[in-house]
TrEMBL record:
This is DUF2835 family protein. It holds the Pfam family DUF2835. It comes from the Bacteria. InterPro entries: DUF2835. It comes from Sedimenticola selenatireducens.
Amino acid sequence: MKRHCFQLNLSAQEYLPYYRGQVSALIVQADDGRTIQLPANSLRPFVTASGIAGRFELTLDDNNKLIHLRRL
């Protein structure tokens, strides 16, 4: 398993196209500099009225498939 941490700060307005399904993936930069693409709907549990903000840890399997996403 691989773990990547990243910081995310999106306003509700910025996340709206992802929430509506108009955009299916979000690209973030991990703390180690790697660029990671993840399904936008995986962030839905973390959406608040003001958007999404915080540090997250992404866990991937050996085939780079999402196993778990959590806020740190």
